[in-house]
Amino acid sequence: MEYITRTEDETIALGMRIGSVLTRGSVLALEGGLAAGKTTFTKGIAQSLGITEPVTSPTYTIISEYNGIYPLYHIDCYRLEGEEDAIAIGMDELIYGDGICVIEWSERIHSLLPEYTIRIVMKVLAEGERNIKITGPELEALL
Length: 143
Ligand SMILES: Nc1ncnc2c1ncn2[C@@H]1O[C@H](COP(=O)(O)OP(=O)(O)OP(=O)(O)O)[C@@H](O)[C@H]1O
Ligand SMILES: [Mg+2]
What we know:
One of its GO terms (molecular function) is ATP binding. By secondary structure, this protein is of the alpha/beta class.
């Protein structure tokens, strides 16, 4: 599926829509360069899980945990060299665990991603405009 959003709020709204069809164990891989809108999209997912705490970029903390309908693990791999770094901090256990994992810069840990991963590729089209491609097993039928 492919979408175009014209504002930050539209990206949050799309995140909410995707968030509403996620289940325990869902893994979302967010790709797209700096300021593509990955953290913004994650704010929408958090809202749909009933999380009221503000969602901030986990660039320095690497993993942020929020308690919602399901636990949400917001992960940022920007500062990781690769899969070994991720395993060293136990990220594989979260990815294959019971919460929902939303992973920014997921390209860095590609081989750790399960085959059921929902892939979200974000591109900057213009100031304020983003192209968002979403692919995932059986997702089409749910949206
Ligand atoms: N349509 C849009 N959707 C999302 N963000 C938008 C849009 N238009 C403009 N923006 C702006 O782009 C920025 C996106 O920032 P955000 O932190 O979500 O990006 P990111 O992909 O997480 O970046 P990083 O790689 O640094 O983590 C925000 O400043 C937001 O206001
Ligand atoms: Mg971010």
